[in-house]
Amino acid sequence: MKEIALIGSPNCGKTTLFNRLTGTRQRTGNWPGVTVERKDGRLELGNEKYRLVDLPGVYTLHDDIQGIEARVAHNYINSNTPELILFVLDATRLPRQLELLPELVASGKPVVLVVNMLDSAKAEGISVDLAALARESGLPVAGVIGSTGEGIDQLRKTIANTFISYPAVAASSLNVEKIAAAAFREDGGVSRTETLDRWFLHPLLALPIFLLVMYLLFTISVNLGAVFIDFFDIILGSWFVDGTRWLLAGIGTPEWLQAVLADGVGGGIQLVGTFIPVIGCLYLCMSVLEDSGYLSRAAFVIDRLMAKIGLPGQAFIPLIIGFGCNVPSVMASRSLGQASARLTTIFIAPFMSCGARLSVYVFVGTAFFPSQAQNAIFALYLLGILVAIGSAWILRRKLFGGLVGANISEMPAYHRPLIRNVLTQTWHRLYSFIWRAGKRIVVVVLFLSVFSSFGTDGSWGNQDTEKSALSATGKVLTPMFVPMGIGADNWPATVGLFTGLFAKEVVVGTLDTLYTPSDSDNLNADAMPDFAADITTALRSVVDNSAGLVSALTDPLGISSAQVDAESSQPSSYKAMQALFPSAWGAFCYLVFILLYAPCVATIGVMQREAGHVWLGYSVAWSLLLSYWMASVLWHLSLIASEPVAAITWIVGATAVLYGCYVAILYHMKRGIADHIPAMNI
Amino acid sequence: MKLSDLPTGLSAIINALSANNAALLRQCGALGIKPGERIQVLHRSGSKGPMQIRCRGTLFAIRADEAAEIAVLAEA
């Protein structure tokens, strides 16, 4: 099959055009460099079939600022494969975009100029003379509006004609400036983008507008998404966990297989499912922002703050999303161009207190310091931010110091977001989370659930009981955590740390169950789940949760509503918990550890995918050490009065060990980064 | 005169790009920000923050540090 190359600079609407021509859908966005991978599609012209190849958006072919992308495009264009080059140009930025033309013509292949976004050009007060463009360049020209499909039929004809006859054009005879001068005219008025920028980049109004947009992004996505969490939880739990167990028990499979398939695989699917609504909503809002062009303005507004920790302004977005959920936060960091900025953002994103961690803070906080819970929670959020800033600062100073970045980026013109584009883009990302990250999550859940189901006496089905292998391990490991003030007999807290790896909110369930005096209520677990009733419950949860949406407007993080929930239920586990923790301060230290020790498996899964296992390893080692140091030092601070020598020795010793470990980690990172960064897809 | 010193709203012709920052030099080259081009400052974020500039119909965000490496001749 003959191949046709589709090339153009970032944000020229290439992907939308690709979708138009091939009928397949793919994501597009407004950030420079959003299209990274090669996409193929089938283009049918009359009876002929062609393969259309969507190349990464590049500014030039010979330059190395875009690293791999430019090289991919260069190699492909100059290989023998493509028989025709479709060169897509954004009409609003025609003069600059034409710079690429001589390089394309030099490849000796037929080039068709496709002038896109004629509608935006009109709105911006720009007119493009297509006839003059064709005359001056000597190349076939087609004008299109990718978003509406106008001019696509003409483009198809132009392509077909070009295959029949193509004028000989020498690269040396092309005068880009002259071509642009002939074809491109601005009416000199104020364009739509400039008018909007007067508001969005206004010296005084820019920040309030930015804060409002971020507030809306967060409130809408997190709270709207949260409405559907229970729905997915109940439905998927009913089908994959209970349903699987019932099915397996019915055909007489051994208990261990039930545990593996129902709790492991089924539980993993259920866990991935509960992330779908929040992540989907976040992506939806993100895609709208991205498609509209505001995202690059938001980056502009917050740039001064981010520059202080050595990150580009764009890194703010992933971090703010982190307060909702760390998973999309890590995934959103992909849009950062510089590898160093991306790696730093992935590194610090897990320190943002996500919504799941909030539930643990509230559960423990309400038990130990009911009147101060708000302040304790606020302190934890602040601590996470400070740790993130500190880590970013260290990375910049010690690791990425030698890399001089060039912080200049294009600000695309504003567009009205296209619903179809937004939805495809959201789906594309959600799909990528479900399948690629989901696989890793299921594997970890499988492992952990087998571990927690398997009893020390060889039986199965011991989740959240004292008998499970996990609880036994917890008991063995508890002495390790005594220095951070959890109490010598407080093994449920240790077990909570392990189950917290599943998802932070699981800690609440684990603590609640393990602290409650046990009376087994799992007797009829093998019974057939009542699918119809579960679906009803799931639907009702959506209705119930929607009712809470209004109050969410004033409390986007849901702190007070979560507190009301915890207070009203007053779990019976509180007494046991209060007895086992040596003091309220010890419980706070435990929360500090929960905040920092390691992200949940879902986050770990996406971190591995986005940054590789080496970087993930550094990140996890870094946060484990830091959390242990922080929690234990905080605990020993409270002991200074009673046993000064031991406490001070511990604080000094732990700090020295942490320092030593960090120096070692940074040393290894430095060595690894030299081989790593250039190879990383930028 | 440095681009970072150019008052908001005024335009100038790029005179030279400092060779100190190779990454910036390459990136500007690729983005079409070259000596001889007309450049205009549209917005600023604070006095030391990034600035929005326009060069050949395209908008860019550039940090003041980097803009200081671009020498311009103010238009009369």
Continuous helix count of chain B? 2
Instruction: List the uncertain runs of chain B.
Output: none
Q: What order do the strands of the largest sheet of chain A run in, or round the barrel if closed?
A: 2-3-1-4-5-7
Q: Please identify the structural class of chain A as seen in this structure.
A: alpha/beta
What's the gist of this structure?
The complex is a heterodimer of chains A (682) and B (76). Chain A is α/β, with parallel strands linked by helices and 682 residues long.
Annotate the secondary structure layout:
The complex is a heterodimer of chains A (about 675) and B (about 80).
Chain A: E1 2-8, H1 14-22, E2 39-45, E3 48-54, H2 68-78, E4 82-90, H3 94-97, H4 101-106, E5 111-116, H5 118-123, E6 126-128, H6 130-137, E7 141-143, H7 152-164, H8 176-183, E8 184-186, H9 192-200, H10 206-227, H11 229-250, H12 255-292, H13 294-308, H14 316-322, H15 326-332, H16 339-348, H17 355-368, H18 373-398, E9 408-411, H19 419-453, H20 469-481, H21 491-499, H22 506-515, H23 531-547, H24 549-552, H25 559-569, H26 573-580, H27 584-596, H28 601-639, H29 644-679
Chain B: E1 11-17, H1 22-31, E2 38-44, E3 51-55, E4 58-62, H2 64-67, E5 70-74
Antiparallel strand pairs in B: 1-2, 1-5, 2-3, 3-4
